[in-house]
Amino acid sequence: MTNGATNLAQDTKVDAVAELRDLDWPACLNARDLGGLPTAGGGRIREQALIRSDRLSRLTDDGVEAVRQLRPSRIVDLRTAAQCEREPSPFAAADMYCHVPLSIPIDPPNRQARLVDRYRSKLGLYSHRFVQAVAAVADAPPGPVVVHCQAGKDRTGLVIALILKAVGVPDDAVAVDYAASAARLGAYYTAKRADIKDVELLELVRELHSARADTMASTLSYLRDEFGGGQSYLRRGGLVGRQLEALRSRLVVRSQPSSTRARA
């Protein structure tokens, strides 16, 4: 299969997965249910257990009501304090709201040109923050959990990838889910780039706005090479066995053996 055919097949797969799990939360652009993704041993992620999204401050009144109808037990907001102040979450006063910023003002700027290098740097430098975010999901009361940042692509993408790897979702499925953000955010990012005239800056911003499966695949390879995988990364950062088991219990639906289904 040629590279063009491979990319076309991948894009088709991404679009199909994203369409099946897309959530109608007016006016969020990038909200979807992770339910249905496969896990090791023939299981799958439970529907309405883990939701990823862009900022909930976008929501219309109908959108807020749609989230309330889901009855989430926890909403994990990964945005900076400044972003939360500029665009407050409509759920900020609720007990279910949990703010876990992945960036703070004293962090040095990251000017690397490739998005994957920025991901690797952030994972390498701030494992304790990623573990805190994953722990907020693991320790949540029973019920759906929503994880979001500003666009629902980068910070959310990394936290969701760590959670999915911790419960046995294969790399290709994690990468396909990550890449689904490209279609959801395409028009929004195109509009944001419309006034950029500098060619080099435009190229950089286009890279930072991207959501390619190969970017996530390379990030997962980094986690394996440097830390022994996503689960080992989380353990080294302080996540304990009880929390890993809690993630599996709340997220994974085990498939019945074929003999059991036949008897039923």
UniProtKB/TrEMBL annotation:
Signal peptide position in this chain? none
Positions of the Tyrosine specific protein phosphatases domain: 128-223
Q: Which InterPro entries does this one have?
A: Prot-tyrosine_phosphatase-like (IPR029021), PTP_cat (IPR000242), Tyr/Ser_Pase_IphP-type (IPR026893), Tyr_Pase_AS (IPR016130), Tyr_Pase_dom (IPR000387)
Show the Pfam families listed in the entry: Y_phosphatase3
| Family membership noted in the UniProt record | Belongs to the protein-tyrosine phosphatase family.
The protein's matches in PANTHER family, at most eight in alphabetical order, are given as:
TYROSINE SPECIFIC PROTEIN PHOSPHATASES DOMAIN-CONTAINING PROTEIN (PTHR31126:SF1), TYROSINE-PROTEIN PHOSPHATASE (PTHR31126)
Q: What is this protein called?
A: Tyrosine-protein phosphatase
Q: Which organism is it from?
A: Amycolatopsis acididurans
Q: What is the lineage of its organism?
A: Bacteria, Bacillati, Actinomycetota, Actinomycetes, Pseudonocardiales
